[in-house]
């Protein structure tokens, strides 16, 4: 994960990776066959680890909004060149030329976040913590917002930092989910 974040997949060689991890390139190719498979399996490993953190955070007995804030915190990159997000950028870039099986595997990783967000929204709505919204639609739009802001953050666009991004997301959630809609600004 770190070497892909440092160099990108195009500049990664199996020989260089093998030296870094103490294996031969032939041994790596035996297990992964291609750099694309190496990338996807590395992303799956990263998402499994992050998924365990996400599930633990969502299982806590605290208000839905607090769990939503934690989900957002886990979703967003820590900053420029975040290794997990570097994997996502590589996968998204390569997915336009990928076969259906690869895109299906990628979609499953993305849908894990989506399903957890929808379930949390439904719970918050049922408990009266969030105003009623179409949870699936809201989750789709929110993930698109998170993805867009995350890309700006991970590539290090000037003027984009984690606190600013978190502020934008908090505003979005406050304006969209407040149990009592905010009064219009006059």
Please describe the topology of this protein.
Elements: H1 2-7, H2 14-21, H3 25-32, H4 35-59, H5 64-75, H6 83-95, H7 100-126, H8 135-154, H9 162-177
Helix pairs in contact: 2-3, 4-5, 4-6, 4-7, 5-7, 7-8, 8-9
Name a few traits of the molecule.
186 residues; mainly alpha; Tetracycline Repressor, domain 2; 0% strand; elongated
Task: Describe the structure concisely.
With 186 residues, this protein is an all-alpha fold.
Structural commentary:
- Keywords: DNA-binding, Repressor, Transcription, Transcription regulation.
- InterPro entries: BetI_C, Homeodomain-like_sf, HTH-type_TetR-like_transc_reg, HTH_TetR, Tet_transcr_reg_TetR-rel_C_sf.
- It comes from Streptomyces chumphonensis.
- This protein is an all-alpha fold.
- The protein has one domain: Tetracycline Repressor, domain 2.
- The protein has helices spanning 2-7, 14-21, 25-32, 35-59, 64-75, 83-95, 100-126, 135-154, 162-177.
- Helix 2 (14-21) crosses helix 3 (25-32), helix 4 (35-59) crosses helix 6 (83-95) and helix 4 (35-59) runs parallel beside helix 7 (100-126).
- The mean pLDDT is 88.
Whole-number mean pLDDT: 88
Number of domains: 1
For the secondary structure, the number of strands is: 0
Helix content: over 70%
SS element count, helices: 9
In terms of DSSP E residues, the strand content is under 5%
SSE string, helices as H and strands as E: HHHHHHHHH
Radius of gyration: 19 Å
Tell me the CATH architecture. Answer: Orthogonal Bundle
Largest sheet: none
Unreliable stretches:
none
Oligomeric state of the chains present here: single chain
The CATH superfamily turns out to be Tetracycline Repressor, domain 2
* Gross geometry: elongated
Structural class based on helices, strands and sheet pairing? mainly alpha
C-alpha termini separation: 50 Å
Any idea of the CATH class?
Mainly Alpha
What CATH calls the topology is: Tetracycline Repressor, domain 2
């Amino acid at each position: 994960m770190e070497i892909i974040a440092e160099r990108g997949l195009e500049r990664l060689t199996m020989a260089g990776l093998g030296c870094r991890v103490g294996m031969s390139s032939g041994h790596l190719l035996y297990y992964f066959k291609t750099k694309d498979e190496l990338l996807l399996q590395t992303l799956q490993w990263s998402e499994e680890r992050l998924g365990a953190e996400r599930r633990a955070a969502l299982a806590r007995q605290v208000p839905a909004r607090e769990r939503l804030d934690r989900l957002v915190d886990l979703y967003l990159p820590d900053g420029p060149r975040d290794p997990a997000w570097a994997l996502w950028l590589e996968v998204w870039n390569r997915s336009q030329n990928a076969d259906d099986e690869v895109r299906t595997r990628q979609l499953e990783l993305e849908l894990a976040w989506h399903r957890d967000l929808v379930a949390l929204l439904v719970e918050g709505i049922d408990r009266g913590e969030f105003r009623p919204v179409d949870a699936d639609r809201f989750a789709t739009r929110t993930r698109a917002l998170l993805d867009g802001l995350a890309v700006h953050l991970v590539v290090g666009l000037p003027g984009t930092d984690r606190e600013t991004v978190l502020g934008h997301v908090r505003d979005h959630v406050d304006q969209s989910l407040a149990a009592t809609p905010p009064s219009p600004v006059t």
